[in-house]
């Protein structure tokens, strides 16, 4: 008997291509979208300011807006008592594009609906709820403000002319009375002393 020598066996090498499964792209895309959402929310957050009020009646965190000329420019984030319990500290977030309006003379006040013999004010607060009014001022940048008790009397818009008159008696004029020229309203009385 002859012995057969086994033929030399050749090993087969199987190479597999390492491919990334398309399913791994989904978590990567989700991670990129989440990072983008976090960045835009952080970027749009704007400035955080503190406004001191005597009372927090009608102010609700997360719901009470801050408005300038009817446009919402911020929202109340938190309400707390001061350490000496003498005032209410309201933390608010102001939109980024209003950052330059936050100056030393900027004024804030709470707008609530009011009715009196002189007239009705704050009707928009009756429909939409109380809000904090804002009037930008001048001066150095600031992030801590003291709220006014009432809306400022002098809210002069750009292009308006302020005229001071002197008269021997007041007559029937009152704050808010219209000024007429040839039966056409041309102005309003802001204040008198």
TrEMBL record:
Domain Mce/MlaD: 46-137
Chief place where the protein resides: membrane
Localization in the cell: Cell inner membrane
Keyword hit for Transmembrane helix: yes
TM ranges: 21-39
Annotated keywords: Cell inner membrane, Cell membrane, Membrane, Transmembrane, Transmembrane helix
Keyword Transmembrane helix: yes
Superkingdom as given in the UniProt entry: Bacteria
UniProt GO cellular component terms: plasma membrane
Matches recorded under Pfam families: MlaD (PF02470)
Name the UniProt record assigns to this protein: MCE family protein
Taxonomic source organism: Klebsiella variicola
Lineage summary: Bacteria, Pseudomonadati, Pseudomonadota, Gammaproteobacteria, Enterobacterales
């Amino acid at each position: 008997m002859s012995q057969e020598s086994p033929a030399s066996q050749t090993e087969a090498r199987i190479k597999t291509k390492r491919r990334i499964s398309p399913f791994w792209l989904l978590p990567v895309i989700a991670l990129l979208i989440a990072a983008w959402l976090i960045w835009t929310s952080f970027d749009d957050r704007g400035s955080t300011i503190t406004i001191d009020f005597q009372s927090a009646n009608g102010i609700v965190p997360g719901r009470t807006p801050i408005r300038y000329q009817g446009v919402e420019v911020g929202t109340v984030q938190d309400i707390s008592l001061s350490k000496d319990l003498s005032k209410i500290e309201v933390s608010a977030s102001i939109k980024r594009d209003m950052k330059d309006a936050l100056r030393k003379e900027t004024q804030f006040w709470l707008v609530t609906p009011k009715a009196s013999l002189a007239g009705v004010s704050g009707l928009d607060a009756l429909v939409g709820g109380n809000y904090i009014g804002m009037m930008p001022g001048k001066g150095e940048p600031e992030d801590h403000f003291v709220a006014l008790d009432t809306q400022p009397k002098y809210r002069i818009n750009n292009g308006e002319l302020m005229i001071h008159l002197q008269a021997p008696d007041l007559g029937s004029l009152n704050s808010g009375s219209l000024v007429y020229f040839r039966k056409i309203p041309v102005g309003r009385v802001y204040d008198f002393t």
